[in-house]
Specification:
This protein is mostly helical and 428 residues long. Helices cover 66% and strands 0% of the residues.
């Protein structure tokens, strides 16, 4: 059964014209029987009247948590497909006409916000990794890149602004210097060049320094730099520069997990899978990063949305990441709090075998030393979950967990007191 895409919360998508558009799409989506994003994308590909050809990732992103107003071509295509599947059997063209004012209102509202805040960020990471012409790439002095940014802005060659801005930050320039460049561009009316330099800094491992300097100056861009880094910095780049992003600390694993939590919670499942299968991650562990190899999985297990987790595990299995999926379920079982929302999402999507897989990972096992918890720690986690499940009405899951624990105890020559204490109230 495909995982149902849920409507984003008001925290994820605040009230406004864009939320009205996405809410309308979700109502039509539910009327169509909550098909998977792959089914919608495939049907659009066979519709000669569809103006767009969105991938399943794009369909999922539009319905789940759009970062901006979707293109009309994609909205029109999605509406046509969902309307043709709706139980109301509406006229498809009439539905498209009904949605156009909603899209237009969202587009106009976004334009008004952009004009008010000056927020015209270039946030596609691919723009900033685009190779420069050889003559430009040969430059080494910061002032040379500043001059080239001015020249490209004068000539209207906007395509070269992002990679030039990225080059300005390499080798690392001080955030103060780049802020001075940004201010000079803004005072000269070069807003595109200024925002390109800002976004390039947000996509560099110096984003925290840049945000701190802006914060000290009382600039609104400080928060936008952090948000842009968290939403758009390529995950292989985060892994490659982990030592710089997470300097030596008392507990680098915890620090790295927090970093990846910030970096992954807003990413699409397809982007997570691309990172987990990338050469940078699979072959770039090294001696220093070997202890941190599971920090992305820990971060995803503890911070990723429930519906996203279900879609992510589907993608992971499809791409052969079976071992990583198993480890992900273990970290969910051991560290996610509260655990109930994930178990309820699995039940609602009729994925009961995965519910059992999660609960089984709470039970003591023959483990590798790096995964082994003391009995007191594991018993405390079991106690917390056994308290959480019945309060949420998950009585079947409660009984399953108790039976798994009882079966484990029956196999032991000497049962730990911590575990028998959990079974005693249930007379098991």
């Amino acid at each position: 059964m495909p995982t149902r895409i849920t409507m984003p919360t008001e925290v994820q998508l605040p009230p406004g014209a864009l939320r009205e558009l996405i809410s309308g799409l979700h109502r039509l989506y539910m009327e169509a029987g909550a098909p998977s994003s792959r089914q919608v994308s495939a049907a659009i590909g066979e519709d000669p009247g569809a103006r767009g050809r969105p991938s399943h990732e794009t369909v999922s992103a539009i319905l789940r948590r759009p970062g901006q107003v979707p293109r009309w071509e994609n909205v029109q295509s999605i509406v046509r497909t969902l309307a043709s599947w709706s139980h109301r059997r509406p006229d498809v063209d009439a539905e498209v006409s009904r949605f156009h004012p909603l899209w237009q209102a969202a587009e106009l509202a976004a334009g008004a916000d952009e004009a008010e805040t000056g927020n015209t960020w270039y946030v596609d990471p691919a723009d900033y990794s685009r190779p420069l012409p050889k003559a430009m790439a040969a430059q080494t002095e910061p002032h040379s890149f500043v001059a080239l940014l001015e020249q490209m802005d004068n000539e209207g060659r906007d395509r070269l602004l992002p990679p030039l801005a990225a080059a300005l930050w390499k080798p690392p320039q001080s955030a103060k210097y780049c802020i001075e460049v940004i201010d000079e561009f803004l005072s000269a009316g070069r807003s595109k060049a200024a925002h390109a330099v800002l976004a390039a800094g947000a996509l560099s491992y110096q984003f925290k320094e840049l945000s701190a300097e802006l914060q000290a100056l009382g600039r609104y861009e400080a928060d936008t730099v952090i948000e842009t880094a968290h939403r758009s910095m390529p995950l292989p780049y985060v892994w490659e520069h982990l030592e710089k992003l997470v300097p030596d600390s008392i507990n680098r694993v915890v620090s790295a997990s927090i970093l990846f939590g910030d970096m992954t919670r807003h990413r699409e499942p397809s982007e997570i899978v691309s990172f987990l299968t990338s050469d940078e991650f699979r072959t770039g562990h090294g001696d220093e990063r070997a202890p941190l190899v599971d920090t992305p999985l820990i971060a995803i297990a503890t911070t990723y949305g429930e519906e996203q987790l279900l879609e992510l595990t589907d993608h992971m299995r499809e791409t052969g990441l079976c071992a990583e999926t198993s480890r992900l379920w273990r970290y969910i079982a051991e560290q996610r709090t509260p655990l109930v929302p994930v178990l309820r999402a699995l039940r609602d999507n009729e994925r009961t075998w995965e519910t059992t897989a999660v609960l089984r990972r709470l039970i003591p096992q023959v483990l590798l030393p790096s995964y082994e918890d003391g009995p007191a720690v594991r018993a405390a986690r079991l106690s917390a979950v056994l308290d959480e499940l019945p309060k949420a009405g998950l009585f079947e899951e409660t009984e399953t967990l108790l039976q798994l624990l009882a079966d484990y105890c029956r196999t032991q020559d000497r049962v730990r007191d911590e575990y028998t204490a959990l079974l005693t109230p249930y007379r098991l």
